[in-house]
Write a structure and sequence with these properties.
mainly beta, globular
């Protein structure tokens, strides 16, 4: 588990997440400089605003994540997102992804 606000506002440009990580708390990596993130297959929960305000251009959400909370990837130049067929996410109030993100299901 990475707790809420665990690494927020730290000017991080790179992180390597543990291959057995299950939970990312709210705003855990908010306000950083991340350009890429490899989310481990073990991940089950991604809290609201976990990656808000970074520099991510693409993301692949692991199959174990069934719900993406609000504003998870807000304020990123996110061009593409690959998400599981059964994962739900917000599209209206407090959208999970920027409006210009192309979302592909797998």
């Amino acid at each position: 588990t990475i707790d809420s606000n665990g690494f927020s506002n730290n000017n991080l440009s790179y992180v390597k997440l543990s291959s057995n990580l299950k939970t990312l708390g709210a705003f855990s990596f908010g306000i950083n400089e991340l350009t890429n993130i490899d989310l481990p297959e073990s991940l089950i929960t991604i809290g609201n605003q976990a990656f808000e305000n970074n520099k991510l251009k693409s993301v692949r959400v692991p199959s174990g994540v069934s719900v993406l909370d609000w504003y998870v990837f807000r304020l990123n130049p996110l061009e593409t997102a690959l998400i599981p067929n059964d994962t739900t996410y917000n599209t209206t109030n407090y959208p999970t992804f920027p409006s210009t993100t192309v979302i592909t299901r797998y």
